[in-house]
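Narrative of activities, Objective 1.

The group set out to show that a structural description can be obtained from nothing but a protein's sequence at a throughput compatible with the screening campaign. Below is one input-output pair from the validation batch, recorded exactly as produced.
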Amino acid sequence: MLYLVTSMVFFMIGGLMALLIRGELAWPGLQFLSQEQYNQLFTMHGTIMLLLYATPILFAFANLVLPLQIGSPDVAFPRLNAFSYWLFLFGGTIVLSSLLTPGGGADFGWTAYTPLSRAEYSVGPGGDLWIMGLIVSGLGTILGAVNMITTVVCLRGPGMTMWRMPIFTWNILFTSVLILAAFPILTAALFALAADRHLGAHVFDPANGGAILWQHLF
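Output recorded for this entry:
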């Protein structure tokens, strides 16, 4: 239930940002948002809707429905489930807190294409908080996927074979496998981007084709 409530809160925040974006675009020229504020809202809206709503809402329904469908008393790792939720909540809070920094939030778009997301073009702590928040929430998503896969594979009730599982359970299983395939790579890419911004790592330096590398990893 906590997953569901928190995901819906993020959804409403992202929806409010969408209304501000569409209101700004209703007439030509600047209305009530500066160019920097518009880019920040655009970045935050996409981040919230995809990574802080669409993905966590899956785990919200999985926590409520999946154990009932397979005859399990609970998920495989209840404490890990709680830990993944708090990582998701704290990560999302860190992402949103970037809007409160002196320079504003991340303004390089929710895809964070390099070199726009490098320190030369995105100055200030807003981008760093965005990266940090997504790393934390991404770790929670990975742990949640491990929990769901283990629940489906190991905690099915008597007589509930894999081929008797409802389609929703299959959906959760395959989605969790895809999350385990994608999110560790995304998390590693975010670590590399943070190293580019602060350690001079040049992983995504356009001079050596790193900008294309980010697109492949993301």
